[in-house]
């Protein structure tokens, strides 16, 4: 359910208690805010970005062995940084 809030002169908003309760947001908690497609996205800041991002983008690795890819990248990096004769 959408709620209406007003932007203050200090560009602040108050998040309705019902939404805080629903999302488990508490006073003093850090939030992240982003803009996408003309909308603001406000989310609780994850305790660990690694945990929050785990499992995203599996389609990127479809048909690719991640370890082989990393080895190839490391090898190319090492070759590009060898001293020149």
**Mean pLDDT rating:** 87
Uncertain runs: none
Residue share in helices? 25-40%
Strands, count: 2
Largest sheet: 2 strands, antiparallel
The radius of gyration is 22 Å
So what's the overall shape? elongated
- The number of distinct helices, counting runs of at least 4 residues, comes to 3
Element pattern in H and E? HEEHH
Our estimate of the beta-strand percent is 5-15%
Strand order of the largest sheet: 1-2
Kindly name the structural category: alpha+beta
Determine the N-to-C terminus distance. Answer: 68 Å
Architecture overview:
- It contains 3 helices and 2 strands, in the order αββαα.
- The protein is of the alpha+beta class.
- The chain has a domain of 31 residues.
- The chain has a two-stranded antiparallel ribbon.
- It is elongated.
- The mean pLDDT is 87.
Write the topology of this structure.
Blueprint: H1 17-23, E1 31-36, E2 39-44, H2 49-53, H3 66-80
Antiparallel strand pairs: 1-2
Which characteristics define this entry?
3 helices, 85 residues, alpha+beta, 14% strand, elongated
Give a brief rundown of this model.
32% of the residues lie in helices and 14% in strands. It contains three helices and two strands. The mean pLDDT is 87.
């Amino acid at each position: 359910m959408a709620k209406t809030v007003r932007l203050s002169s200090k560009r602040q908003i108050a998040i309705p208690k019902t939404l805080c309760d629903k999302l488990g947001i508490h006073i003093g908690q850090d939030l992240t805010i982003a803009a996408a497609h003309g909308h603001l996205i406000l989310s609780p800041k994850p305790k660990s970005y690694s945990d929050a991002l785990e499992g995203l983008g599996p389609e990127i690795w479809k048909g690719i062995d991640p370890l082989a890819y990393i080895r190839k990248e490391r090898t190319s990096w090492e070759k590009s940084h060898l001293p020149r004769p």
